[in-house]
Amino acid sequence: MNLAQLRAQQIPVESEPRAAAPFHLLVKPIGAGCNLGCRYCYYPQRQQERTRKMDDDLLAEFIRGYIAAQPRYSREINFVWQGGEPLLAGIGFYKRALALQRRFAPPGVRISNSLQTNGTLLNDAWCRLFRQHQFIIGVSLDGDREVQDAHRPDKRGGASYDAALRGIALLQRHQIDFNLLMVVHDGVADRAEAIYDHAVAIGARYLQFQPLMLEGDAPAAGYGLSAANWGRFMLAVYRRWRSRGHVGQVFVMNIEQVYAQYFTHVSPSCVHAERCGGNLVMEPDGRLYACDHLINAQHLLGHADRQTPLATLAARAAEMPFGRNKSLRRECQRCSVKSVCQGGCPAHVGEDRYNRLCAGYYAFFSALLAPLLAYPRSPQGAMQWRAAVSAAAG
Predict the structure, then answer these.
(1) Are the C-beta atoms of residues 143 and 194 closer than 8 Å to each other?
(2) Are 291 and 347 in contact (CB under 8 A)?
């Protein structure tokens, strides 16, 4: 009898509590450390804290605790690595993480990994590791050479576009699936079609547009994003996607999320979930916060150690007001796009308790919902809609 069979026959002993529902935890192994100097960097601690890497003891305790805290019925547990620039942690760090995942993974549970990078440090060794372990890679690239180099320079203010393109080419050569993450702000509001066309031209088929977060360096550097510009940009992307016949060929997360949420009543994104608080973030010293964009004392949950189980910290995050109340604001209750918006991200809600992107979301979601409203919000409705889309595409 092999080890796997012996483990499967063991009577499970609950050494610590499990979460009532699956939760995600975004890990920042190098914290704010980065080789770029993005002018709108959202990381609020970037200037105040010395860059340090997560140590091996904490890494082992986190991986053990994160796996142990998931509900027993979980069949996949996803690790998300971000920064800063997470590749600065070194390839050995991720090899150790993968070994620990194998060590602690229960029988029948798949462990998956996602990593967000600026792409400039990728090489063949990284790509072989990602390919072997089926990492899902996100690459931050804001647009063509002019846009990228203006807003995402390196630490010395130099260009980063060519290095990022080399990284993307390596991912393609190694046949690694990747998506592009592009930050939208007022400075690019009139370039939606060109940014979309550029992303498709370099071979990206999975795209995500992220509205600027007004934190970190952005306000002092003069960056902003109005609701009108956010709506205008996303509507332009939607119309470009349709006019170029890319339905079913290019997947824009902001669009796909609406389709999924309309028919399933469940949001693939915490931003548009009815409640949030299930996406925690961990700094390299083990501090856990309830949200990546609410890293402050008010939303500090505790520390990733054995004293307080992660399931307890996850439950604490789910009960915080920011996540419980996000879709309960008065203006949301009478809004025709509430079913797919749910109030948006709490980090965009100002002191007046209004989401500063509200009107933009309304314009974008109204356009996407218009052709869906003829179909019931059910699996059967989704099948009818897909058949109609396929017929229209010829």
Answers:
(1) yes
(2) yes
How much of the chain exceeds pLDDT 90, in percent? 71
Task: Tell me which long-range contacts 290-298 makes (C-beta under 8 A, separation of at least 24).
Answer: 290/316, 290/317, 290/320, 290/322, 290/323, 291/317, 291/322, 291/323, 291/346, 291/347, 292/26, 292/82, 293/42, 293/213, 293/215, 293/345, 293/347, 294/322, 294/346, 294/347, 295/44, 295/45, 296/44
Catalytic residue among 56, 197, 285, 292: 292
For 104-136, the DSSP string reads HPPTT-EEEEEEEE-STT--HHHHHHHHHTT-E
**What distance in Å separates the CA atoms of residue 44 and residue 387, rounded to the nearest whole number?**
46
What do you get for the CA distance between the two ends of the chain, in Å? Answer: 55
What one-letter code names the amino acid at 119?
Answer: G
What's the rounded Cα separation, in Å, for the pair 122 and 29? 17
SS3 content of the chain, % helix, strand, coil (to 5): 40, 15, 45
169-221 residue pLDDT tens: 999 999 999 999 999 999 999 999 999 999 999 999 999 999 998 887 888 88
pTM, to two decimals: 0.91
What's the pLDDT band for 392 if we cut at 50, 70, 90? confident
Q: Catalytic: 285? A: no
Which pLDDT belongs to residue 115? 98
Which residue has tokens 């390196």?
154
